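Annotated sample (chain length 291).
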Amino acid sequence: MDLILQLLFTGIGIGAVYALVALGFVLIFRATNVVNFAQGEFSMVAAFVMVVLSVDLGWPYWVSFLLSLCAMALVGAVFNLGVYYPLRHRSFLPVIIATIGASIFLANSVLALYGPQPQVLQGWFDTPGIQLGPVYLDSQYLLIIAVTIVLVAFQYWFFEHTLLGKKLQATSQDKEMASLLGIPVSAMIMLTFVYSALLGGIAGILVAPILFVSIQMGATIALKAFAATIIGGFGDVAGAIIGGLALGVIETFGAAYVSVPYKDGFAFLVLVLFLIFRPQGLFGERVAEKA
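Output written by the structure step:
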């Protein structure tokens, strides 16, 4: 039981990172009806920016964190203007290919500027963690879980109780009708890309002290988050959160009880099972079209 509780805590911590990135997938999909496959690279870029500012330049951690978020907001805005906006009137396929191309561009740009060597980023707290009964609560995992709870609560409040949030929801539901009602659709989509880049950046910075900061971390996180999005029900916010947490727990228990080298495969095994038996996901609705 002690081991189960420890693994559950660790799995929820890792799953919270997947949930944050999955939220970015969902927000972009609901606003533009396309999948942003560069979402994981936002996490990687933010982690490397954090390494440059806090490790290489030696700036205070909180200053580096705020500047990294500013950099990610800029990346989200540039991404919207350079990748999505020129193709906004095209079908979803060219936009998806453009996001894949942007993902490759970001990864290779960081590789050219910083090199392939993985980097180490220290955590926010000097205290490694606390012992609560039989469970050791790592401080970084606690921070990840706490930040995820705060962001999810903020997102619920923002979308349900603010005028700007309702405008974003209207834009995601029907862009043409939102435009007729006087809502600046382009500005709302821009804001969505900026916010999704911030979510990905926060996830990358939070998980960086646990993993090595490397070029491959973005693709790994993105694949897990994409799987979580499908498992939860594509386009559903609650599904993205629960799917991310579930994947984190599944891969943690799989690594402990089955095989560590194949821990990344358990998430995709669950994904395949969902695609076969429940393709609409946990919270998705089955949609049928008449011939």
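Annotation: Strands lie at 129-132, 135-138.
Annotation: The first helix runs from residue 2 to 32.
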